[in-house]
Write a structure and sequence with these properties.
The complex is a heterodimer of chains A (75) and B (178).
Chain A (H helix, E strand, L loop, with lengths): L1 H60 L3 H7 L4
Helix pairs in contact in A: 1-2
Chain B lengths: L1 H23 L5 H30 L4 H10 L2 H7 L4 H12 L3 H30 L4 H33 L10
Classes of the chains: A mainly alpha (75), B mainly alpha (178).
Amino acid sequence: MVQTQLGAVKQLREILMWRVWQTLGESLFFFRRHFFVLAGLLAPVVLPFFVLSEYRTLAVLHGDDKLHKTLGSWW
Amino acid sequence: MVVNALVGVFAGALTTLYTVAEIDGDLRSRTDLMRGALLAVPALMALQLLVFFAFLGGALFFIVPGFWLLACLLPASVYVVAERQPVPQAMQRSFVTFRPMAWELLMALVLAFAGILMMGLLVTVAASLITGLSSLPLRVLLDALTETLCLLLSQFLQVLLVRYYDRQRQPGAVESGL
C-alpha cells in the first residue's frame, strides 16, 4: 500500500516537474522562433479593427457621439 | 465588443493553422491560411459557447470539475481548425483523448496563462506611460498596438494546445498515457 502510494507520488512529481515544463519549453521555443512571422500574419488583419475600436472608445469618452452611432454598438 | 471577440477567435484559428502547418512541414500560403482561419470562425464561436456552458455546468459542482472539463475540452479547437471536424465530434474526441492528462494540461495552461498575464501587464503599463504623454491620434495607434501585442502574446496558449495535440497523435502516445 505504502509502495503504491510512493509510486503514485513519484509519478505525480515526475509529471509536475518534467512533462509540463518540457511541453511549455518546447511551445515557448516554437513561439519565440515564429513570433515575428505570426506578428506579420496577424497584425495586418487585427490592427485596423483595434485602431477603429480604440478610436471609437476615445471618441465616446470625449463626447463625440457621431462615430459611436455610425459604427453601432457592435464595437 | 462582438467584433473584438471575432477578431480574437480568428487570430486563434490562424495561429493554430500556422502552428500545425509548421509542425507538419506543410508549406501553406498566406492566403490559404487566412481562408482556412476565416472558414473556421463560425464553428469556433459555437465551440467556445458550448465549452463555456460545459465549464459553467461543471463549476456548479464545487468549481473544480468545471476546470477539469475546460482542460478536457479546450483542445477541441485544434480538431475543429486543423482537421475540420464538426464541433460535437471534436468535443467528443478531445474529451476522450485528453481526459487521462487533464490535470497536466490544466497545470500547463495555468502556468502559461500566468506568464502571459504578467507579460501583458508589463506591456500595458509601459505603453500607458508612453501614451499618457502623446497626442490623441498617436494615443489611439499606441493603444491599438498594445492590444495587438497582448493578443499576439495570448496566442502562446494556442501554440501550447497544438503542442499537446501533436504529442497525443505521435505513435504510442495513447498507450503511454501521453
